[in-house]
């Protein structure tokens, strides 16, 4: 009995040791469960870090590539300064435009603004400024320099020089104080200044400018974006075709070209070009015909007219002509007796011949000029012009010196008044 307490104590200690591993295991179990729960979180964080690192590497790679492309574009444009076209330094242009001040801004197109400037000698210039920070516009810039520098005609705008310096690409033109034809033509207070003789002179001047591009220059050129805002007027109201960023040079043996890049302005596009991407000199003839009808009527063949009348201006023109109601088509500012009807009807007739749906039926520009100046030339009956569906969206057309743009899709046009798709009814 004496040893009983000691035996009890020893027994309890042995029991505690026997149960200790189980307790330890039980105590460790919750910790083990916590490790298993934390593993997915750690893996998720690791995956996220890897994805972010990859995205950053891709961003850096694309950023370097974009910069390399921009540098390459600038280097390709620098030889233009050594061409026949005079190079002007950036400092001179900044001084002439008062550092591109808002007061000297004439307008803005697809890729940048145009400014009026005055050189040290007092000569006025118009500066078309394209930013080198955008890849868009570089091809149009080079195209315009290479084309206009080689063309000289009284009805084409004169390019005086260019500037490719730092991050700037600029074209310097003669300054035309009356700006563009659409600033006079479409329902403005200045419309009254366009009497019949002035309109007839503008029509003939545009025709001669196109004739030079198509047949008389040593390059055969299709403009592809002839419209009222691309016809500038000098101080004597002589028309000058501008904006050759979309123009294409044809080989002598070429009749037409099929392109996947459809550019131009809704209302002026020939149907074969708008729907099939096929353009030729007859595409310009169509645009010229639309322009003639706009000059006669004082109305724009655009989306607004289509929305209001449910048909185009050229369809109205053909209908009134067919019904012997041509006088109703003429601009209201041209009062009866203020124009020679024989001359006006001849222009009207020639315009309708130019907007016929089939390119084969349209006259060449040499024939169109003959129609306009010769009362003895017999004109055939015009066929119905093409039908166009309503465009999906429009944009406001800036007046003055406009900047053309290009597209990479056949369903998009990004000049002034634009279309997303043209389809026959």
Structural class: alpha+beta
As a percent range, the share of helical residues equals 40-55%
Described by strand count, sense and barrel closure, the largest sheet is: 5 strands, antiparallel
Q: What average pLDDT do the residues reach?
A: 77
Q: What series of H and E elements makes up the topology?
A: HHEEEHEEHHEEEEEHEHHHHH
CATH class (first level) name of the domain at 182-373:
Mainly Alpha
CATH superfamily caption of the domain at 182-373: Transferase(Phosphotransferase) domain 1
Cross-sheet strand order for the largest sheet: 1-2-3-5-4
Give the SSE layout.
Blueprint: H1 4-77, H2 90-96, E1 105-109, E2 112-118, E3 124-131, H3 138-148, E4 159-165, E5 168-174, H4 182-185, H5 196-216, E6 220-222, E7 231-233, E8 239-241, E9 248-250, E10 257-258, H6 271-276, E11 278-279, H7 281-297, H8 303-309, H9 313-322, H10 341-354, H11 365-373
Helix pairs in contact: 5-7, 5-11, 7-10
Can you walk me through this structure?
The protein has 425 residues and is of the alpha+beta class. Among the domains are: 81-174, Phosphorylase Kinase, domain 1 (2-Layer Sandwich); 182-373, Orthogonal Bundle (Transferase(Phosphotransferase), domain 1), CATH 1.10.510.10. The protein has helices spanning 4-77, 90-96, 138-148, 182-185, 196-216, 271-276, 281-297, 303-309, 313-322, 341-354, 365-373; strands spanning 105-109, 112-118, 124-131, 159-165, 168-174, 220-222, 231-233, 239-241, 248-250, 257-258, 278-279. Strand 1 (105-109) and strand 2 (112-118) form a beta hairpin. Helix 5 runs antiparallel to helix 7, helix 5 (196-216) packs antiparallel against helix 11 and helix 7 (281-297) packs antiparallel against helix 10. The longest helix is centred in the first third of the chain and has 74 residues, at 4-77. It is elongated. Residues 73-82 and 389-425 have low confidence and may be disordered.
